[in-house]
Design a protein that fits this description.
11 strands, 123 residues, single chain, four-stranded antiparallel beta sheet
């Protein structure tokens, strides 16, 4: 099982990026999907998640700026990030877990991970 991410890059503060995540050999419909990030020297933290029944969760820092979605027709998850700040600089990871998780922001709840994509926001 693999998750393939894309969409990271370098952007100026205030700019936008859209991250994509596609599974290699399963469909997202039966999986909870989440985005995490990890900055140098910091722990991996939850950014956003969407459950199999459509519930959406955001970290406080992501509310109002980031939007998670899953396009079942394309079997792709997205994280739209607007109003980016230098403190958003991190490696962003897509994660998935079959059916559900107890705590969406706990990385140990997820068995499947992407390779990570670097997001760098310049001031």
């Amino acid at each position: 099982v693999q998750l393939v991410e894309s969409g990271g890059g370098l952007v100026q503060a205030g700019g936008s990026l859209r991250l994509s995540c596609a599974p290699s050999d399963f469909t997202f419909g039966d999986y909870a999907v989440a985005w995490f990030r990890q900055a140098p020297g910091k722990e991996r933290e939850g950014v956003s998640a969407i459950s199999t029944d459509g519930k959406i969760y955001y970290a406080d820092f992501a509310k109002g700026r980031f939007t998670i979605s899953v396009d079942n027709a394309e079997n792709t998850a997205y994280l739209q990030m607007n109003g980016l700040k230098p403190e958003d600089t991190a490696v962003y990871y897509c994660a998935a877990e079959y059916i559900e998780v107890s705590q969406w922001s706990d990385p140990y709840e997820y068995d499947y991970w992407g390779q990570g994509t670097q997001v760098t926001v310049s001031s």
